[in-house]
Each structure stands twice: as structure tokens, then as C-alpha cells.
Amino acid sequence: MVLAKDIKGADGGVFLAAGTALDDAAIASIAALGAPFAYIKPNPAFTSPEKDLQRIESFVRYYFQYVDPDSPLFNELFRLVMERVFEASQKGWAIPCEYERQAKSVEHLHDLFFRDQGASLDLVKHETSLSSFPDTYFKIKELLDSPASTAADMAKVVSADVSLAAKLLRLVNSPFFGVAGRVDSISHAIALVGVSELATLALGISAIKFFKDIPPELMDMETFWKHSLRCAVFGKCVASLLPGLTSERFFTAGLLHDAGRLVMFKNLPYASVQAMLYARSSGAPLLEAEREILGFDHTEVAGLLLEEWNFPAELRSIIAYHHDPLLSPAPRDAAVIQLADILACGVEISSTGMYSLPGMTQEAWNLLGLKTYDIDKLIRLHDKYFQELTSVFF
Amino acid sequence: MTLSSISSLTLRKTPRISDAEFADLRGFIYDVTGIDIPERRQYLLENRLGARLAELNLKSFAEYSSYLRRSPSKDKELVYLCEKITTNETSFFRDSKQLDVFRDFVLKDVLESLQQDGRKELNIWSAGCSSGEEPYTLGIMLHEMLRMSIIGWRIRISANDISTAMLNKAKDGVYNQYSFKTTPQEMIEKYFTKEPGGFKIHPKVQRLVSFAALNLNDRMALKRVPKSQIIFCRNVIIYFDEEMKKKVINAFYDNLLPGGYLILGHSESIHKFSRVFKPIIKPGGMFYRKEG
User: Which of A274, A287, A297, A323 to mutate to test the interface with B (most CBs of B within 10 A)?
Assistant: First the structure.
């Protein structure tokens, strides 16, 4: 037996290197270290391309167990994800074992309240009373709401926040946004993209700053924001395929679609982990596990949070209904982000994905008027732009 | 190896469960076990049980329903079904904060009042004990609190679960690393011995616990459980609908001796459908007391 991946020691250094032959003494030393598992190289006598593909199939099927197995959308996504995981594994990506995919122990974390001793609104009130929101946000919001404001006013406010302005310029200059020529000032950006579109992007980016001090045991923040950014990219791409939609607000909606989850992680860490464990073992999507364990879910929390912040109503309803678009006042808009979220979860199966994909009803899918072959196109667009955009945000 | 075999894959691998078959199976599971399967889990149920149909050589979910009702091995099949639709996520000292508060407020109070009355007889009921981690954890806590004086006590921890497979594992008392993810190291060293298959619970803890199969929807069986001072039922009622929750909570109320305590899972609450208990809220844990 040969070790396939390094085993880390207590100090984080390499305890046993990949390629070490595992004799009794080596196995005993791993046991003494207390490592719960180790990756070993497959024995060539027991592997074959067919077996590899079977393993990949059963791994990928886990993520699709909750959705309608006759849905053309999910069948297409299933095949595309299979190809993706297959390619990743050819490049050396190892399918994570069950132990790795379990949520971590958070026995030391405290919740704000017990089940039914508080509700989603208490969470939001508690959160907004603690942290102050970035000033720039309110100034932008004020200008957006005032009919007398001009593009020059907006440019002045946004330019005053140096880090925000820099991010916006990098974003607008990225090939993803595809504006012609180099944009070197906020007023130039406004002239190209439009006041309200740029302001919406600025709202989203400045809101990200609000979320800090999330317990790292629950969720690695990079993983969280990468998922949000993927959803933003997919949101804008889906919207660009539909006639009559300005796509910038879908980028912002994608960035903030799971904001409610961060408020839950921070204030109800223990219950949030119970929900994660429950989702993982029952095969239900995290959304449904939240509803069962906490009595409410992250879309409800996000809806209240964005209301508290006085977010533009159309953005608020996209985010609050992105799992139930048919209940939204603007169902098609919410369906855009529902699909974007599902595609983001889909492409993450070959990296950080943990939970069953949430479903999407045929009615919601029909609202978009897309064809199943568009899914492939959308994923290609995502792959083309995502990596480069991460450098704007992280 | 090419990718061509992937392009012919489809998600559907099982016979389709019709709405009528789903309603029937769902109703059957509810009537027999009290477990409520939400309607939105139709595909999940189809998926989870699909492979079982093939194993049993059945062609439809209607055939599976009649197998559950009429086959000679229907009892065994019901247990299998329950394992497929519930989860058995558990570990020693799970929710350690709640257990600390339980020890300092509830257990201390109960032991002291029994001692004052000169009746050193303690009954604890662990309802939904899964593979035994919870009742054994309680046994360890009692050894830690009472130390040598435990020999003067008559202690019985009645541990029940619907799954005989889980109960067999519990009776064996041998656990792997995963069961210890929330367990303090010194507790492992003190109460478990290393064996080739994992860690075995010490017989002095094991002898405090009696395991038996029990269906929480079986009213007569509930009545046979010895009256207790403390009931643990963590992460079980989450599978029940409100009516079944009410039934079970009432059964717990009847089982508890006056002044007894009910302990639920961290995220479970009976607030909405029962006011017979007095909720006691402490930082880190919440309990329900039967006044008297």
C-alpha cells in the first residue's frame, strides 16, 4: 500500500510524504498521530477506467438525488458535471471521502437563542445593531433615491471610497464586462455603464464589507465568496441571454444571494452546523435543512436584512425569492438567480460542493425560455471569466 | 477511455413513483412509525428506495408497498426503510454545552433530591438512542459524578430505537473514530478499551444501559417503559409532524415522575404545540420540567 497524499503532522508540516510505502510501522505511526483517515494509491490490480467512471457517477449522483430525475435541465447539468468531475480526476483531483465532507465540530460556539425563542427578525436586528454599515452605501443609496442627483454627484461619492472605486474599475475593465477601451475613471465608467447600473454594482461591493467575524469552522470565507461570485457571473450571463434585462443588477444579486446565511452562521453557529450535518446525511439541500432545524431559511433572513438596509426593492425580491421564484412579484428575475445558484453549485461539485442541489420547478425553468443546450454555453462562459474575476475581489 | 459513455447517461435509474404511490407509501410510513415525509421529498424517496426495488426484484413502488404490508419479512423491511429515511448522526458527548448544563442543573438536582428522600433509584429513558452513544455518554456522566458511591445506587438507563441494526451496534458497544469527534480525550482513555475493531465501552458503563426496540408510535409499548426522572429524546421529533409530536410529548409527560425533566435536541422545541412542561432556559441548554 502506498500513500497517495501527504499526511500533515500536529505542527502542520509533512508527517508522512505521498509515495511512502505503508508497512505496519508506518500505519501504527499514523494511528498514533490520530489521523482519522489517509489517502492510499489505488491498487492497479483493482482499478479500471470503467470502475473509475462508476465511482465518479455514484459521487455525482449524490448531488442530484433531490431533483426531478426527468427534468431536461438537471439531466443536461448531470452530464456536464460528470464530464467536469471526470476531467478533474484525470488531472489528479481526488474525490473527497465522506469524513472530509462532514461539517466540523463546533462544540465551543454559542447561539444567540434557542429554537422558537427567537425568529429571523431577531437575528437581523441583532446583527444590524452590532455592525455599522459602510457610509458609502448610504450615500449611494441617497443619490439613487433622489431624482435631482446627477451622474457627477454619483461619480464624486464613489470615487471618494478609494478601495470601492478601484474594485469597480477593475470589474468594469475586466473582459467579463467587455466594455470597449480602457476605463480609467468612475465618471467614464458611469458614462459607459449607466448611473443606476454602476450604483447597483457599488451597493453590492460595499455590502460585502459588512460581513466579518464569521466563525471559520463553519465556512471558509473564500469558499463562500467564490460561490457568490460564481453565482454573480452566472446571473449576469443568464440575464444577458434574456431579452429586456439589464444584467448588472443580476451580478449584484448573485454576489449577495446567500447573505442571509452569513447572518445565520454568525449568530446561530451551533444550529447552523446541525443544519449542515442534517443536510449532508439526509440528502436534502441545505435550504431545506435550515427550514427544518431552525424553522426559517437564509432567504427569509436575507429578505429582512435587505429591508433593514433599505435595499432597492427589485434586488431585494430577487434575493429573497431565489429559491421560490414563483412567489416573487417578479418571478422571471428571481428565476435567473435560482438557475445561477444551481449552476454555481453544479460546477463546484468538482471542487468544494457539499450538499444536494436544490431543485428548480419546470414552471420556473420555463419562465426563462432557455434551451438545455444553453447550459453548456453558460458553463463555458463562467469558466472563461471566473478565474480572472476572483482577482478583483480577493 | 472516452467521454462518450457519459453523454448517454440519465438521472433516472429507478421506476417512477406516481403521485398516488407516493401518497400511499407516505401514509403507510406515517401510520406505522409516525415519521412524516414532506411532499417535496418525493424524488429523494424515489431515489433512496429505487435500488431496494431492484434488489427485491420488484417492478413498481406499488409492489413495494404491498411487500411492506404483506411479505413474511415485512418487519425487517420496515426497519430497513426507516434507516433509509432517517439519519443516524450522533457521537459521544454530542452538544457538550447542553450536557454540561444538564449535569450541573438537572442531574445534580435529581440526584440530590433522591438522596434526600433516601431513594437511590434513578431511571433515565433515552428515546431514540441510535447506535448507543447517548445512553453510554449518560452512563459515563453518572460514573463521573457519583464515583465510588455509584455502587449504592440502582440505575437503569432504558435506551430505545426503532432500528434493530442500530441497537445491535449499540449492544456491541464498539465504536470508531467518528463517534468520538466531540469526546474529551480523557473520557476515551478512562471508559474505553482499544480493540481491533475500534474502541469498546467499559462493562461498568454498559451494565447501566438496557437496550430494546421501540416504535414511538406504539402507544402500548410506550406505556411499558419504566417511569423515569429524566427523558432524553434528541434529534428524533424532527421527523414527526405536529400531531405525532404532540402524541410523543404527551407520552413523555405521562412517563415522567413529578419534577422530572425532558431534554430535547439543540434545535428542537415543543413551544408551539405543548404547554404542559415548564421550559427552563440556561446559557448553553434548555430543558422542560414536569411540575410537581
Answer: A274
Question: Tens of pLDDT along B5-52?
Answer: 888 899 998 899 999 999 999 999 999 888 899 999 999 999 999 989
Helix (H, G, I), strand (E, B) or coil at A142: helix
The ipTM value here is 0.83
Chain B residues near residue A115 by CB distance under 8 angstroms: 266-269, 271
Regarding whether A330 and A249 lie in a shared domain, the answer is: yes
Same domain, A233 and A100: yes
The third-level CATH classification (topology) of the domain covering B96-289 is: Rossmann fold (3.40.50)
Q: How many angstroms separate the Cα of A232 from the Cα of each of A28, A256, A385, B11, B208? A: 48, 8, 11, 27, 56
**Do A193 and A219 reside in the same domain of the chain?**
no
* Chain B nearest-CA residue for A281: B87
Q: Which domain holds residue A168?
A: 132-209
| DSSP state letters, A64-90 | TTTS-TT-HHHHHHHHHHHHHHHHHHH
Q: Do the beta carbons of residue B154 and residue B122 sit within 8 Å? A: yes
> Do residues A275 and A293 lie in contact, with contact meaning Cβ atoms separated by under 8 Å?
yes
3-class DSSP state of A40: strand
Q: Which CATH number fits domain B11-85: 1.10.155.10, 1.10.10.10, 3.30.70.3270, 1.10.150.20?
A: 1.10.155.10
Per-residue pLDDT of B58-117, as tens digits, reads 999 999 999 999 999 998 898 888 888 887 667 777 888 899 999 999 999 999 999 999
CB pairs under 8 A between A and B: 107
Distance CA B29, CA B49 (A): 13
B192 vs B179: CA distance, rounded Å: 12
Flag if A114 and B269 touch (Cβ within 8 Å). Answer: yes
Q: Which residues of A touch B97 (CB under 8 A)?
A: 107, 110, 270
Domain boundaries, chain B: 11-85, 96-289
Q: To which residue does cell 406515517 refer?
A: B30
pLDDT of A148 strictly over 90: no
Domain end call among A191, A209, A227: A209
- Tell whether A162 and A273 lie within a shared domain: no
Asked if A116 and B269 come within 8 Å (Cβ–Cβ), the reply is yes
> Do A269 and A256 reside in the same domain of the chain?
yes
Residues A379 and B223: their CA atoms lie apart, in Å, by: 59
Please give the Cα distance from B237 to B36 (Å, whole number). 10
Residues A58 and A171 in one domain: no
Q: How many domains does chain A have?
A: 3
